[in-house]
Amino acid sequence: MKKLVLSAALLFALGVTFTSCRDENKADSVEETMNEASEAVNEAADDAQDAMEDAANDVEDAMEDAGDAIDDAAQKTGDAVNEAMDDAKEATKDAANSVKDKANELTGGN
């Protein structure tokens, strides 16, 4: 019985010795590495989101610039059409006056 108690005490002492000497740093290191990886993934996701927002803003700005260019072109086209109509009106008026003057010359002013 004495050997059984001593053997149990020896096993208990060895178990406690090896259990208490286990390196806890590895577990902390793995946890720290996981946290760092998680933070890196979050930062990458934030950077990607910022890049997408910047790209969306650039597209919006380009669309606004294109809209402004279209508006300007439409305005210039309208102005050119109006000017051409005014010129045609003047030319028609000049031609009518010229015909009237020639008719007056031929009829002797009557």
Describe this structure in words.
The protein has two helices and no strands. It is mainly α and 110 residues long. The protein has one domain. The longest helix has 83 residues. This is YtxH domain-containing protein. It comes from Bizionia sediminis. Keywords: Signal.
Order of helices and strands: HH
Overall tally of structural domains: 1
Count of individual helical segments: 2
Shape: rod-shaped
Strand proportion, as a percent range, falls in: under 5%
Unreliable residue stretches: none
Helix content: over 70%
What is the CA-atom radius of gyration, in angstroms?
Answer: 48 Å
Give the tally of β-strands.
0
Question: On the 0-100 scale, what is the average pLDDT?
Answer: 84
Largest sheet: none
- N-to-C span: 158 Å
Tell me the structural class: mainly alpha
Protein name: YtxH domain-containing protein
Organism: Bizionia sediminis
Biased composition (Basic and acidic residues): 86-104
Signal peptide: 1-22
